[in-house]
Amino acid sequence: MADAGFAGELSKSVVAEIAPDVWMLEGYIGDQFFVKHPSSNIYILRDGDSLVILDTGAHSFYRSRMLKIIERYKKEGVKRVILTLTQGHFDHASNNEVVLESGLQWKFLLPEPEVKTINCVTDMIEDLARLEEYENVYTSMFSWNWPTAVVRIAEKVSHPIARAIVRRAFGKTMGGIRTLAERADILSLEDRVTQRFGSVEFEGWQVGRFFLIHDGAHSPGHISLYDPENKLLLAGDVTIEINPAFFYSSIDRLIKTSGQFGVMAKEGYVELVGDGHRSKTFMPGIFEKYGLNPLHKTQIADVARGREECASFFGTFHEYYSSLKKEALSAHSRIGDSTVAEIVEELGASRSPGVQLKKAMKFPDFPSRMDVLVASVLKEAGVRPRKEGKRIVLSPAE
Ligand SMILES: [Fe+2]
Question: 392: CA distance to ligand 1 center in Å?
Fold first, then answer.
């Protein structure tokens, strides 16, 4: 994906060796999701004569930076590149073709559930379709402000037209990328192995010295990467403020995984944490612009370092997700039978710092929505919607 004319801003992103032979290429994060798309952090880790690339970002700007690092290690005897992704989303998967340019043998390991996700436009339209069972998405998601008003007007005329407009808009932002999915080696669910770190246990895949933890939290096949040599945990989008970002994101898995990662840190297995979107260059400005107080100092930094800082970083996200779930359920139980929109309104009055943070990140500036939070929490709590005339009504969980 081209850099849409903001190469100057992208060039402020930092390339840093965060541990010996572990590189972090800082991505991009802004507050105009459809105009200046986010790009994930990219990690390149050396493991003997292999390089593992975790995520490739959104903007083609990052390719030459990746190739420069690859070139250096080629000279030092690295023979192959292993590409893998924390998730199939476009902001993590748009430069996968870099492996073709590397001049090295390569393979691309793609977790089975992400084979669907990596077709980003279709995947997101389908996610919305599932959400439609719980609420009138096309009215809740798109405000009467420009440019989303176009969808609202279309929705008044015809639902298929509104849907087609949204598909086109998504296609413009995240379509047309070559992901190489057709050439990937699929990491099948069947082939997962169990790994124990102290008192926590995960399923996942061993790749060289790394363990790919299948957490399935942000997306069904989401993975986090653990590097025992550096006590490094790359948590992808397990620790990002916009969660649950999709109807298929799992609040229960976000709570569970952030809790497990916190335990790993407390027990001495983790002393360095990076994730998919931490940014010391771009994040502080966003918090400042929106008058937000970070819940943890690492939110506006690049990495967490040291056992305590890593444990408290995961602890903060564990608390954040737990409070979002608790507050959503209690808002619902206060007002009884209601629609998602009515629960969102009641939830918005909560003084919980987590709810206030989530509420401040508004769509389409950020890919974050309170209605998705409510619907996904209720879905996982076993609440099933029913139609009462034009209203989609939900009864509070038992
Ligand atoms: Fe992401």
Answer: 30
Asked if 275 contacts 260 with a C-beta cutoff of 8 angstroms, the reply is no
Q: Are strands 232-234 and 272-274 parallel, antiparallel or unpaired?
A: parallel
Tell me what pLDDT residue 2 has: 58
Structure letter (DSSP) for residue 216:
-
- Residue-averaged pLDDT of the chain: 95
Helix (H, G, I), strand (E, B) or coil at 37: coil
State whether residue 354 is helix, strand or coil: helix
What structural domains and CATH numbers belong to the chain? 7-118+183-320 (3.60.15.10)
Rounded to the nearest angstrom, the distance between the alpha carbon of 371 and the centre of ligand 1 is: 19
User: What's the 88 CA to ligand 1 centre distance in angstroms?
Assistant: 9
Contact (CB, 8 A) for 224 and 234: yes
Cα(153) to ligand 1 centroid in Å equals 30
Question: How far away, in angstroms, is 38 Cα from ligand 1 center?
Answer: 8
Give tens-digit pLDDT for 14-37: 999 999 999 999 999 999 888 888
Three-state secondary structure readout of 127-189: HHHHHCCCCCHHHHCCCCCCCCHHHHHHHHHCHHHHHHHHHHHHHHHHCCCCCCHHHCEEECH
Over residues 210-220, the mean pLDDT reads: 98
Backbone phi, then psi, for 158, in 5-degree steps? -160, 130
- Flag whether the pTM goes above 0.90: yes
Q: Are strands 210-214 and 15-19 parallel, antiparallel or unpaired?
A: unpaired
Measured in Å, residue 337 CA sits from the centre of ligand 1 at 34
pLDDT tens-digit map of 108-155? 999 999 999 999 999 999 999 999 999 998 888 888 887 788 999 998
Question: Distance (Å, rounded) from C-alpha 148 to C-alpha 386?
Answer: 28
> Cis omega (within 30 of 0) on the bond before 20?
no
Give 220 Cα–ligand 1 centroid separation in angstroms: 14
Output the pLDDT for position 174. 81
User: Please, which pLDDT band fits residue 4 given cuts at 50, 70 and 90?
Assistant: low
**Tens-place pLDDT, residues 54-107:** 999 999 999 999 999 999 999 999 999 999 999 999 999 999 999 999 999 999
How many residues in total does the chain contain? Answer: 398
Contacts of 159 (CB under 8 A, 6+ apart): 138
